[in-house]
Amino acid sequence: MPEISHPAADFTLPSTGGSDVTLSALTGAPVVLFFYPRDNTPGCTKESVGFSEYGDAFAAAGALVFGISKDSMASHEKFVTKKGLTVPLLSDEHGSTCEDYGVWIEKSMYGKTFMGIQRATFLIGPDGTIARIWPKVKVPGHVEEVLDAVRALSPAYSDVSGQ
User: Collapsing DSSP states into helix, strand and coil, what is residue 48?
Assistant: First the structure.
């Protein structure tokens, strides 16, 4: 997993809405990357809906927010439509970005081991370095905690009231 104050690993990934997102092109604004295991599962849905509900507050704080999983673009588009998501979802079907961020790990469930995405969030500062990492995210209260960290990172926006 990357370390705080180190440069964030650059990537270009397809995004819902039909465009590509290149991290290095976003320098100058805080960027939130939340990695999640799978579209349309309970925890991932709650997290994605939460980031969407707070989208205006993140925008008011000057931050860009993206969800990343290994699901296909077709799956992401269905997920966005079904749940009314406003946060862009990026598809890392080949898994290189998940590996670069250290979230592609061996997991265990019911005695079986398998590879999967560890739910984690990264706050990347306007300078392109990692400002904060939330490994092994628990969904309840997480979006609000990330928003508080974004506001702390961007003092000019800290007076803006959000949700």
Answer: helix
pLDDT > 90 in the chain, percent: 84
Q: How far is CA 109 from CA 24, 80, 113, 147, in A?
A: 36, 27, 7, 31
Tell me the C-alpha distance between 65 and 33, whole Å: 6
What's the chain's length in residues?
163
pTM of the model: 0.92
Q: So what CATH class is 29-157?
A: alpha beta
Active site (annotated) includes residue 44:
yes
Task: Round to whole Å and give the CA distance between 95 and 122.
Answer: 17
User: Strand 64-69 to strand 89-91: parallel, antiparallel, or no bridges (unpaired)?
Assistant: parallel
Instruction: Provide the residue ranges of all domains of the chain, joining segments of one domain with +.
Output: 29-157
**Residues 21, 31, 44, 147: which is the catalytic one?**
44
